[in-house]
Every structure is written in structure tokens, then in C-alpha cells.
Amino acid sequence: MMNKIFGELNYDYIWEGETPINLFDEEYKIKLGIEDEDEVGISSIQEETFVFFKNNEKIIGKKIEEAIYDYYCKIHMYEPEKIDANVINDLQEVKNSKEMKYLVKPIQMCIPELEDDREMEILFNCKWDFEAGLGVRIVNEEIVKIGTQNDVLI
């Protein structure tokens, strides 16, 4: 199905497609997942969430980059047990948020089926935790949670 906001989508329990995202001075093509468990179609709040994100991508992207960098610095210094022991010595030193592109890669944007807030999660592969990955939850264009993918998914 062609959607005027999201582009080409396919339905397989959720609406799936692809979208570009700009982070760390790079453009990535990531999966797009839009919940529709009741099979009633994409809601106006889901469309609004995506439009608000795209219209403010540069500002929100900077917030995401800084939040990921702060999170990584925190676990690297204070919670090293959260870093896979097999890779801790091989991780590249990062000196700022833009250099996080060497440690994380966005892979999916998830837009849940909600009624009120503009909410989404962006999921990342990350070199310090191959299994759990990294996720960022954004509500009304503000970052409200960062952690493993399971921690941020609703």
C-alpha cells in the first residue's frame, strides 16, 4: 500500500516500510514499523508523530546523539558490567556524540498504536551489547528513555 505520509508499506501484523534517518552526520535507511494490532489502519496520531519527527529531525537527532553519548559514557565509566566482556577492550574511544557512529547504527523506527502522545522508539545495533542492542524512546519530540531495546519498547 502506498501511504501519503510513510510511502510504500506492507502489512504483516504491523505496517512495515523503510525510511531514511539522519544521525551522526550520516544518512541511514532503516526499517519502519507502525503498530496496527486492531487492523483499523494507521491513526492520525501515528502520522503526526512521523511528520513532527521529520520536520524536527535535525533538532531531535542532535538530542538522540547526545543522549546516546551520555548513556555510553555513563555505562563505560560506572557500569562496565553492561558492556560485553569480549569487546570492552576493542571498543573505539569516542570523544563526542558524533563519534558514536563508530559504536551504534540505527536499524528501526517503531511507532506504537497510542491515542494521545506522539511516541516512537528508535532501535540501534551497538557494539557494546550485540544481543540487547540500544533503544531510544521519544515522546512529543523529547527523549524520555534510553537503554536496551527491551527497556524502551512498550
* Quaternary organisation: single chain
Number of helices: 3
N- to C-terminal distance: 26 Å
Averaging pLDDT over every residue, what do you get?
91
SS-based class:
alpha+beta
Largest sheet: 7 strands, mixed
The beta-strand count equals 9
**How do the helices and strands follow one another from N- to C-terminus?**
EEEEEHHEEEEH
Strand order of the largest sheet: 3-4-5-6-7-8-9
What percentage of residues falls in helices of 4 or more residues?
10-25%
List the helices and strands and how they pair.
Elements: E1 2-3, E2 7-8, E3 10-11, E4 14-23, E5 26-35, H1 44-55, H2 57-78, E6 104-111, E7 119-126, E8 134-139, E9 142-147, H3 149-152
Parallel strand pairs: 5-6
Antiparallel strand pairs: 1-2, 3-4, 4-5, 6-7, 7-8, 8-9
